[in-house]
Amino acid sequence: MDIAERLLAGDVRGLARAIRLVEDRDPAAEAILRQVRGRAGMAHVVGITGPPGSGKSTICDHLIARWRSAGHRVGVIAVDPSSPFSGGAILGDRVRMQRHTGDDGVYIRSMAARGHLGGLAGAAREAVRLIDASGRDRCLLETVGVGQSELEVMQTADTTVVVATPITGDSVQIIKAGIFEIADVFVVNKADVPGASKVARELRDLVRQTKGMTTWQPPVIQTVGTTGEGVDDLLDAVERHHAAITESGELEQRRRRRLRAEIEAIVVERAAERARRELRDGTMGSELSGDLRGVDPYGLADRILNGHTGRQDP
Ligand SMILES: Nc1nc2c(ncn2[C@@H]2O[C@H](COP(=O)(O)OP(=O)(O)OP(=O)(O)O)[C@@H](O)[C@H]2O)c(=O)[nH]1
Ligand SMILES: [Mg+2]
């Protein structure tokens, strides 16, 4: 069996190989993605984001355990955009979730920054699709830290959980980080630490003020990661959100939006690649070696995009 067939049969090693190819941007990945495409779309993708050390992995670990006892198969992608190290970068995640190693109903993979950040979001999205196609009906996407690249990665999620704590700061921090808007569910973790109720109250007020008109009001749930307290409420909120957006058609809309964004990203990537090629060794290169004052960059860019570069494509 080839890699795609093994993946579709639910084989975890086939899945791992396919994700590796995607991450390495191996040309073979595209064919695999095409082959499995029709089988994806069943998984509920849950994104978990929030400041470093807020307890995301600890919470993921509890969710995995609950999903497993309910008979679900689970995939986890832990993304660390800030880390320059490849693969296995997120040691803490491995440690936190390691009680699941040996259970092939749980697949956990770390991804770190390689090259540019848009590429990371793309790789994460494709990895999620592979997990989905391999018959895992729950997929967790954890991002470490808060920034633009996390926001991009989180666009892949159907339900986004934003984790705050009394330690990592109040709701103002969440707003500054730009993650308030993307939250479908708020978690105030470390509820055993003083100040948790205050943060929860602030977030509830903010939700009331800013999302008063929307049909889904993001609930604010207090949890204690170390004991698992509140995790059942979180799970309940996550599943209610999924049911609500499925019923309202919002899930379908999100997926269409996502697909448009994906196509756009692929076009950008391919156009940039083409431009680099043309400017390096196409006829365009020679136009740039003469008198620079006569060069019209917009005109040349249009010619590259339209394929009018005066050269036959190989
Ligand atoms: N007191 C307390 N500590 C907690 C709680 N939840 C998690 N922790 C601890 O907080 C630390 C960080 O937990 P992680 O789950 O690794 O946090 P994270 O958000 O995944 O961290 P990064 O991936 O590094 O951003 C660990 O030492 C946990 O044991 C909690 O509810 N209360
Ligand atoms: Mg973590």
Automatic annotation (TrEMBL):
TM ranges:
none
A single GO molecular function, which one? GTPase activity
Keywords linked to the UniProt accession: Chaperone, GTP-binding, Hydrolase, Nucleotide-binding
Is Hydrolase tagged as a keyword?
A: yes
Pfam families assigned: MeaB
Q: Which domain of life is it from?
A: Bacteria
The family annotation for this protein states: Belongs to the SIMIBI class G3E GTPase family. ArgK/MeaB subfamily.
NCBIfam families on file: lao
**What protein name is recorded for this chain?**
Methylmalonyl Co-A mutase-associated GTPase MeaB
What is the protein's species of origin? Candidatus Amunia macphersoniae
- What does the record give as the organism's lineage? Bacteria, Bacillati, Candidatus Dormiibacterota, Candidatus Dormibacteria, Candidatus Aeolococcales
